[in-house]
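User: Let's play a game. I give you a shape written as tokens, and you guess the letters that built it. Ready? Here's round one.
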């Protein structure tokens, strides 16, 4: 059996963070890939870990399925019961390869907000937090102008986008406080030097972890599930639920 997802606690130092958002917690789950590769028990363990963290927001950053249409319904069932003030989601390339509208509908039945170049607002401690969903850039569904339309300038901005390599373009357009991505699985089978070169050749420049992009921060999670093989091997590939705590940078 695969090793159960672990909690990865990360502090994100945000320049000029609204002091009322000091300590806001966001749990991120990505790349679930329900179906024959990822056991139901593995997915449900990730749900339990996320809820136990008692986050203010749960962010789902895409690739809930593999290739089969029936997996859309499985994703809705297996990802049920997430608990936070707001659960928000964006779609990934596998979701569109399989059945984008079906995956979105399954998540929405759980009362999760699926943001397809849209945003939603949340009031935390009397201060506005904008959750912005940029649709999947791998399948060319992204539209930054539409995603940021109407977002208050002074709000704390957290962006969900499945593929991290759009982050520099997002930063040039808006410079949000935090961008959350997945997609890479941390390389899934990571061999130092070799995996990095392969990833760069196919246009993947952010493998996993936290990156500073000017005043913005990008976090790339290796995610939860499995694609191709039911193994995660090497540094930075372990299945995780990321729990990010916002802190004001000194």
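Assistant: Ready! My guess for every position:
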């Amino acid at each position: 059996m695969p090793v159960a997802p672990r909690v990865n606690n990360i502090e994100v130092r945000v320049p000029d963070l609204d002091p009322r958002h000091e300590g806001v917690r966001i749990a991120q789950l990505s790349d679930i890939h329900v179906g024959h590769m990822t056991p139901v028990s593995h997915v449900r363990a990730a749900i339990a870990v996320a809820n136990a963290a008692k986050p203010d927001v749960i962010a789902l950053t895409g690739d809930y399925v593999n290739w089969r249409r029936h997996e859309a319904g499985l994703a809705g069932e297996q990802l049920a019961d997430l608990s936070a003030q707001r659960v928000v989601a964006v779609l990934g390339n596998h979701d569109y390869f399989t059945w984008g509208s079906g995956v979105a509908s399954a998540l929405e039945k759980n009362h999760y907000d699926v943001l397809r170049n849209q945003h939603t607002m949340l009031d935390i401690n009397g201060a506005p937090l904008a959750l912005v969903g940029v649709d999947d850039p791998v399948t060319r569904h992204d539209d930054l102008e539409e995603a940021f339309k109407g977002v208050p300038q002074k709000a704390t901005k957290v962006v969900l986008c499945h593929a991290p390599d759009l982050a520099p373009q997002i930063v040039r357009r808006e410079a949000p406080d935090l961008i959350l991505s997945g997609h890479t699985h941390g390389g899934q089978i990571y061999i130092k030097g070799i995996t990095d070169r392969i990833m760069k050749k196919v246009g993947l420049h952010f493998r996993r972890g936290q990156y500073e992009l000017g005043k913005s921060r990008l976090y790339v999670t290796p995610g939860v599930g499995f694609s191709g093989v039911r193994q995660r091997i090497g540094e930075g590939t372990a299945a995780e639920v990321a729990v990010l705590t916002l802190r004001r940078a000194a």
